[in-house]
């Protein structure tokens, strides 16, 4: 057995003996699952194929219940501080984003 292969095998055996759960993907779901499992005492390993953060917005917002769960764990504010800023959107039309425009003459508008 080559030295490189032996080192890889040794690392895999060590990881297997110190990991309870392996999670594929470091997206929002995978990271939240790892966090919740770690709070419960599970030893987790998150595997991600990408070597850097994706700058493309794949979800334009979070749902109120998701915000509540993040807030309950003290994660909402740190996440919002690191969030990629984008233009405000009101919805979609035929899968095309529609920019949000404040109605004219309503309280809180400048028009």
UniProtKB/TrEMBL annotation:
Molecular-function GO terms, alphabetical: FAD binding; oxidoreductase activity, acting on paired donors, with incorporation or reduction of molecular oxygen, NAD(P)H as one donor, and incorporation of one atom of oxygen
Q: Taxonomically, which superkingdom?
A: Bacteria
Report the cofactors: FAD
Stretches assigned to the FAD-binding domain: 19-88
Q: List, alphabetically, the SUPFAM superfamilies matched.
A: FAD/NAD(P)-binding domain
Q: Output the InterPro entries linked to this UniProt entry.
A: FAD-bd, FAD/NAD-bd_sf, RIFMO-like
Keywords associated with the record: FAD, Flavoprotein
List the Pfam families hit by this protein, alphabetically. FAD_binding_3
Name this protein carries in UniProt: FAD-binding domain-containing protein
Organism whose genome encodes this protein: Streptomyces violaceusniger
């Amino acid at each position: 057995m080559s030295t490189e292969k032996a080192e890889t095998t040794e690392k895999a055996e060590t990881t297997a003996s110190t990991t309870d759960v392996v999670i594929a993907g470091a997206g929002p779901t995978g990271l939240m699952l790892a966090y919740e499992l770690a709070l419960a005492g599970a030893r987790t390993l998150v595997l991600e194929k990408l070597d850097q953060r994706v700058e493309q917005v794949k979800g334009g917002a979070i749902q109120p219940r998701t915000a509540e769960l993040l807030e309950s764990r003290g994660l909402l504010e740190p996440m919002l501080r690191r969030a990629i800023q984008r233009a405000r959107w009101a919805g979609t039309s035929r899968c095309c984003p529609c920019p949000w425009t404040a109605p004219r003459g309503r309280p809180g508008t400048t028009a």
